[in-house]
Design brief:
Number of strands: 8
Shape: elongated
CATH topology of the domain at 142-242: Serine Threonine Protein Phosphatase 5, Tetratricopeptide repeat
Strand order of the largest sheet: 1-4-3-2
Largest sheet: 4 strands, mixed
Order of helices and strands: EHEEEEHEEEHHHHH
Radius of gyration: 20 Å
CATH class of the domain at 142-242: Mainly Alpha
Length: 242
Amino acid sequence: MTSETGGASGTRMYPLLPCRDIDEAIAFYEALGFTRTYRQVRPNPHAVVERGELAVHLFGMDGFNPADSYGSVIITVPDPDALYASFAAGLRAAYGHLPVAGIPRMVRPRKRWGTVYGFSVVDVGGNWLRISKTGEREAARDATEPGLTRSIEVAARLADAKGDDEQALKTLVGGLERAPDAPALERGQALLYRAELEIRLGRAADARVSLEAAEALDLDQQERSALADDIAHVSALLETGG
């Protein structure tokens, strides 16, 4: 019996991701809840880390610069939020804070313009793990659609899927300026995401101003509850540096 891939039933494919130091990479994935199942140093540094059905193969390269990595893996899971929460707890335990800028880093789950809901992890080798919800498809959208929601999603595409935090911040600032009468909940979401981007860019003072502006909005109880997680997230990043 053959599968749709043309191979025997049970066929698997395991891409290899580069890293500068194999043990540093193993430690990072262990912080995410993976278990090392294989490691060799010679003739070539190579390791395998696994978490349930997720398996990552790593190889070491002398002189490798993580900032130059083009490694990228798409991962679909039933519940991105639950996986993010687990990853975040492990990273905080390992690093003492949640790394949201530089290498390594992880960003929160969000809807991104032109793609699906999910989040990204950049490992110590500069490789992107792009996690999204299993089975989710992008609905048709009008590229000229106005409003802050569109600005937030475009900014998320730029920052969280591409890594361009500076351009994402400009997009969000422009969206806020163009939509002064947007619903308070949308403004709160935009201000809090702006604060997170400012933190990633090392602008803590600006982030505090954005956080205070979000907290000062005239919100009803339901709207304030909807922003509670974002407020807590930004506050924690400001307190701990991540």
